[in-house]
Amino acid sequence: MNIRDLRYFLAVVKYKHFGKAAESCFVSQPTLSAQLKKMEEFLGVQLLERSNKHVTITPVGEAIAVRAQRIISETDDLIGYARSLQDPFSAEIRIGSIPTLGPYLLPHLIPTLRTQFPDLKLRLYEGQTHDVVKRLRDGALDMLVLAVPVDIEGLSSKVVFREPFYLAVPQEHPLASKSKVKVDQLKETELLLLEDGHCLRQHAMEFCAWQAAADKQNFEATSLETLRNMVSAGAGITMMPKLAVPAESTPSLTYIPFEKPEPGRDIAVVWRKETSLGVVIDAISEILASLFSK
User: Fold this and answer.
1) 10-19: per-residue pLDDT in tens?
2) Distance (Å) of CA 60 to CA 5, 67, 72, 146
3) Which CATH architecture has domain 3-81?
4) Residue 69 pLDDT exceeds 80
5) Among 281, 2, 257, residue whose Cα is nearest residue 158
6) Exposed, middle or buried by CB within 10 Å (0-12, 13-18, 19+), for 136?
């Protein structure tokens, strides 16, 4: 049994399909299947239940997959550390972010990274906070860019900038003509929020004036773009992170800044303490701060 076999096994765990797993590992399906059979014989346990239509991971297989992922993560970290000693900015870095941040932040960040570090290999992943934090802990990601506070006990983090919220209202709304608004002006307003699981929902509801309004809503959106469309249709108003506010105004929506103290969220970089990519993460953190700390 070797590291390659563990990668084959984890690919099958991920895809639940030999063909897709083999494709992701750049080997033929018979080769992958044969190696996993040898692995089962070596360990003396059944990892997979095979049929013509699908693959099922046995309970023993699920437990071994957790340990295999830990081994692969440590191996990748060892390889990354060795390569970083030669040129840390030619390594691969896997960056995770959240749906309410990644699509609006990465288009600004990636061109800068490609200009300053052309040999740096980027892999990007998007998921809700609990998902990307778990993937970071498991070693599947190297760093995160997300909104805090969240549960990141045992991980390292650094706030790189604060992102204010804007009020998004339809153009015919009474507040649309205001140059700025106060949070306490919105106590009796119909408020639209993202569904549970999105940290932006919690950050918005931290402001007590919004709490009463939020309790009245009967609609929850799955994305910022859905929220934007619902506001445009006159279903209510919402808070929109600054990075998601378009540079040019739209005919149906108005975005209004808040008076100070303005509501907002802290954006942080998060990483494992033992990472071999510390110098790269520091550099990315500085770029983020320079781009958005304004």
Assistant:
1) 999 999 999 9
2) 17, 11, 18, 34
3) Orthogonal Bundle (1.10)
4) yes
5) 281
6) buried
CA-to-CA distance for 138 and 119, rounded, in angstroms?
A: 26
**Could you tell me the residue ranges of all domains in the chain?**
3-81, 88-160+266-292, 162-265
| CA 100/CA 245 separation, integer angstroms | 12
Q: Which residues contact 110 (CB under 8 A, 6 or more apart)?
A: 122
Cβ neighbours around 70 below 10 Å, total: 12
Exposed, middle or buried: residue 253 (CB in 10 Å: 0-12, 13-18, 19+)? buried
- In single-letter form, the type of residue at position 4 comes to R
Q: Confirm or reject CATH 3.90.1150.10 for domain 162-265, answering yes or no.
A: no
Per-residue model confidence as pLDDT tens digits over 128-156: 899 999 999 988 899 999 998 888 999 99
Longest CA pairwise span in the chain (Å): 72
Q: With cut-offs at 50, 70 and 90, classify the pLDDT of residue 247.
A: confident
- Answer yes or no: same fold for 3-81 and 162-265: no
Residues facing residue 156 across a β-bridge: 271
Q: Is the pLDDT of residue 276 over 60?
A: yes
% the chain with pLDDT above 70? 88
Number of Cβ atoms within 10 Å of the Cβ of 86? 8
Length of the chain: 294
Q: In CATH, what is the architecture of 88-160+266-292? A: 3-Layer(aba) Sandwich (3.40)
CA torsion sign for 213, 215, 218, 219 is positive
Percent helix, strand and coil across the chain, each to the nearest 5: 50, 20, 30
Q: Give CA separation, 283 vs 139, 144, 287, in Å.
A: 20, 14, 6
